[in-house]
Amino acid sequence: MKICLRYLGDPGYQQAIGQELGVSQVTVSRTVDRVVNSIVAQSNEWIKFPTTNHELMEAKRIWQNMYKFPTEIGVIDCTHIGILKPNRHGDEYINRCQRAVHRC
User: Fold this and answer.
1) What's the pLDDT score for residue 101?
2) For a 10 Å CB count at each end of the chain, is N or C smaller?
3) At what angle do helices 2-9 and 25-46 cross, to 10 degrees?
């Protein structure tokens, strides 16, 4: 799992990742393939999106109550979306991702 997380976190050359983690490029390739295929096989169970109007409204209500985002229905982890900093409480809208690429 560590091999796959390392690769997905910063995809680069499998050989270099293998050297960093002390395994072969083939091990990196096979590990990533197996882990990703296992995740995809479970995706229908793990990934849920609202499908009815009632589910959409409930998702929006939850996001508004918890995070003060009135039109959100969910998020995709590690996706950074640029937003305009509001005049009030603007310091609460800082993207803390330190990489130049918009994936953390």
Assistant:
1) 44
2) N
3) 90
